[in-house]
Each structure stands twice: as C-alpha cells, then as structure tokens.
Amino acid sequence: MARKQHVAIFTTASLPWMTGTAVNPLFRASYLAKDGDWDVTLVIPWLSLKDQELVYPNKITFSSPVEHEAYVHWWLKEKADISSDFNIAFYPGKFSKDKRSILPVGDITDAIPDELAEIAVLEEPEHLTWYHHGQRWKTKFQRVIGVVHTNYLEYVKREKNGQIQAFLLKYINTWVIQINCHKVVRLSGATQDLPRSIICNVHGVNPKFLEVGKMRNGLNQGHQTAFSKGAYYIGKMVWSKGYKELLQLLSDHQNELSDLQLDLYGNGEDSDEIRDSFSKLNLDVRSYPGRDHVDSLFHDYKVLINPSTTDVVCTTTAEALAMGKIVICAEHPSNEFFKQFPNCRTFNTCNEFVSLTLKALVEDPVPLTDDHRHALSWEAATERFVACTELNEIIQEKPVTSPNPFMSMSPDDWMKSVEEACAHLHNTVSGIEAARCVFGAIPASLQPDEQLCKELGLSSPERKLYLGR
C-alpha cells in the first residue's frame, strides 16, 4: 500500500481560547484524519505562562506542551464526542495586546520534519506569513493551501486612519499570500479578492448542535413547546462584533420593538461599555456573561439576532440554524451560504429588520431537512474542502529543469522569477528587527526566547519543535 500523504494544519490560536481559528482547524484536522486518507498533524501556538494568563479563560494554564495537548484531545472527546486520530505539534508564539492576536515567533515551518513536509494548510495565511522569516512555505512544502478566516480589512477600517491602513494591508496580504500559497480558500465573498483563490465555506458545526436541533424538532412534532424563549445574541463583547450595529437598530426603533425582550451573552474588552449603552435603551435588554453556545441555557431560545458584518462566515449563525432556530442577519456576503436555509432571514434596511424580527417572534421555525443538516455538518464541510482544494490529487515530484536563456523565458517563467524575487525581498525585510517593529511585529520575535526554548525543549532555534504523539 502507498504511504498516506501528510497534511499539516497550521493555525493561529488554540483551545481553551474559544475563537474560530482555534475550534475550526481542530475539527478540520479531526475529520480529515477520520476519513483515513491522510496522516494529519495540527500545529498550534505554544504560549509562555504570562501570555496564557492573558489569553486563556477561567484561569486555565498549562505547564508543558504535553499537558496542553492532552487538554485539546480531551475537549474534542468531551464537547463533541469525536475521537482525535491526529497528531498535535506546537510552534512558539507570543500574544500581541495591540492586535489581540497570537503571533508566531521564529521559523514555524520547523514544526514539521522535512520528510513529512508534503501538504500545509495555513489557517489565516496572511496572519501566519506577515512576519515569517525563514524557509519559504512553498519551498519546504510541496503544496500550500491557505484558508482565509478573518476580514482584517473591515476591522482595520474601524481604527484611526483606517482607510489608509486598509489600503496598505490589502496589498501586503496579497503579496505575502501570493508568495507562500499555491491555492487559497476564501470562506465567503466578505474577504478581499486574492490570487489563486476560490470562495467556498469549508466550515461545519459541532455535531452536538445538530443533535439539539433534532431534539427540538422532535418536541415540535410531538406538539410540545420547542422554544419557550424569544430572542438573544451571543458573541465576544467588542463593538466590532455586531454590537454597534445592534445598538443602532434597537435605538432607532424602540417604539416598534417595545415588546421585544433580548438577552445578550458575552465577555470581552468592551463589555462594560456595551452593557452600559444597552441599559440606557427603553427596551427589555438584559446582559449576561458569555457561555458555550451548546449550553442547555440556549436551547429554549427561538430567534438569534446577529447583525454583524465583520465576520467572514459566522459560526454562531451556523450553530443557531443547526439547533433549529430562526436567525435574523444582515444581507451581506458573509451570510450568503446561510441563505439556502429557510430559517435564515436577511435584511437590507432597518424597516426590514423590524419586520423580520417581529414576524420571527410569533411564528415557528421550519424543521431542517436531512440535506440541510448535512450541509451544516463537518462531514459536508470536509467534502467541500477536499473538492475545492483538490486534496485527493497525488503530488508529483517537480522535475528539475535547467534555467531558460534570458530571451526565451515564458510568461510563466517570468512570473515565477518575479515571485522568487518578492519572496527574497520579504525574507530580507522580515529579518530586520527595526523593519519588523515598524510593520507591527512583536519586538524580539525573530527567534524564540530562552523561556520558549526551554518549554518547547529547544536548546537552540535550529532544533526541531515539540511534536506530539
């Protein structure tokens, strides 16, 4: 039998940080491994204790990569009842308070031994390559696939001098992705257009949400009350996650929505300000700490209101639809995938928002069909991922060719030469500490520091990183 190809999935976050780039790549690794056609390694950031305390909730910390690895496998089994037949590797990372993100430190391609460097999946390829200094991804791996999760341009536009920053970031993203990726998957049209890209939602939902939906549908068919509560919203409490839009909609239509009771669930940097602003409305809006969306507390709610336009594909919306709820969301490219579901109601105007919300509160959701459940599942998401990335294609060894004479170079050869020159320029600039800091890198992040080396078992930056079971 031929040896299975190896797929290394690199991502920018990890549990217990419940962010999309921690959860979705974890499920992707699990379901690709479950298919049995590939050997899979999930590569996640390792943070020193001081950064763990800033990032991970509920005071959860890990003293070693082995302990962190065990937690990830435990969570997958406990929260999704999925066996994890894949390896976990770690790369050194540091948390940027300004960007509210984990950034890689050193050459993170070292996380995968050269003999296993076949297919790399970069979850958030721009994020993983902005400050990358070391071996070029395309040089080390035979195929590199980027999955764009985040609409960084939209977030940047909301900052000071946002339009200028977004203009620059757009071209930097295009540059680093073209240098490093053979193919790019954009989860929706909400992301910027990128070279060699295709739009396809390759995410699914935790199967526990689909189980809740089946249970609620069973109650409905048994003529019992499936949903006893009205409307809610759940999301990280930062203004950019839809709270600003929601506050504006409710504020402008308090009279029409006077009978609405809305419960907000979330934690975040702007939580105090957000709770205070909503408390000033003449509406019954209540705020609660964030909780896991699959918690039984949410099962009785009938309507999710989610006006956010910064998401690429909103996981919360997918989860609510899987649970059989009605979702009120904006007419926006990020919600295009969800429009196939009858319980997804999109609005263009404020008046449409009011009308759809009032209607949803008095009618029953449409029961999900088997086809709709499958479309929301990780089985279907994995099928879409394999198809759009052509992952089943056998990687052929690249033939060694002699350089073409200068005057006989084809357009493709010219493009490759330009790309190589750009890659060399990026590698040079990313190796200059002053230049890195100007563009927003964490100071002294060219190589892992002594503490990171000690925790990952590195006596020097040249040694390979910790590789799990």
TrEMBL record:
Gene Ontology CC entries for this record: chloroplast outer membrane
Annotated GO biological process? galactolipid biosynthetic process
Can you name this protein? Digalactosyldiacylglycerol synthase 2, chloroplastic
Q: Where is the Glycosyl transferase family domain?
A: 232-334
Catalytic activity annotated for this protein? a 1,2-diacyl-3-O-(beta-D-galactosyl)-sn-glycerol + UDP-alpha-D-galactose = a 1,2-diacyl-3-O-[alpha-D-galactosyl-(1->6)-beta-D-galactosyl]-sn-glycerol + UDP + H(+)
Primary subcellular site in the record, as a coarse category: plastid
Q: Which organism is it from?
A: Canna indica
Q: Which SUPFAM superfamilies match?
A: UDP-Glycosyltransferase/glycogen phosphorylase (SSF53756)
State the family named in the UniProt similarity comment for this chain: Belongs to the glycosyltransferase group 1 family. Glycosyltransferase 4 subfamily.
Q: Where in the cell is it found?
A: Plastid, Chloroplast outer membrane
> Is Lyase given among the entry's keywords?
no
Q: Keyword annotations for this protein?
A: Chloroplast, Glycosyltransferase, Membrane, Plastid, Plastid outer membrane, Signal, Transferase
Q: What is its EC number?
A: 2.4.1.241
Check the record and name the Gene3D superfamilies matching this protein.
Glycogen Phosphorylase B (3.40.50.2000)
Task: Tell me the CDD domains matching this sequence.
Answer: Glycosyltransferase_GTB-type
- Extract the GO molecular function terms from the UniProt entry: digalactosyldiacylglycerol synthase activity
Answer whether the UniProt record assigns the keyword Secreted to this protein. Answer: no
